[in-house]
Each structure stands twice: as C-alpha cells, then as structure tokens.
Amino acid sequence: MSVRARIESKLVEALAPTRLDVIDESHLHAGHAGARPEGETHFRVKVTSAAFSGLGRVDRHRRVNALLAEELAGPVHALAIDARAPEEPGRP
Fold it and tell me: Are 80 and 45 contacting, i.e. CB atoms less than 8 angstroms apart?
C-alpha cells in the first residue's frame, strides 16, 4: 500500500471526514532534506471532520500527527495540515 493510501485510510477510519484531500507534494521538494527520488515524503492534508468541532488548531494538528505517527517516524518527512470542522467558513 502506498504511503498516500495509508494516510487516507487512517484518517478516514479515525475521523470520518466529510472532505479529505491527501496531496503528495514530494516533487516540489526534490533535492531538499528528507526527499527521496521515489517520492512520497512530503504531503499536504486538507481534512474537514466533525471530530474537530470545539478544538483549536494546535489540538487538531496534534490529533492528525498522532494518527499518522508511524508514517511521520518513517517515510514522511513533512506534513502540512489544514484541519477544519464542517461549520467553519473556508473549509478545505
């Protein structure tokens, strides 16, 4: 299973998002620290979930980071997160 697919699977299972975009941005970081020629090292996650209602930005990021701890300890070098609740304007 690809890293992207594992990220999607874990977030869907834990957060039941109404919207989820997992974008591999590895090609933008070629030659930078942590980049590998085969990619799947730098990701951007845009997730909207009721699980984030009432949580601040830092707590939302902590939750996503905890869910993806295995990936962050291994193949993923960088993860940009946009985590929102459904009722927020400007949903990802």
Answer: yes
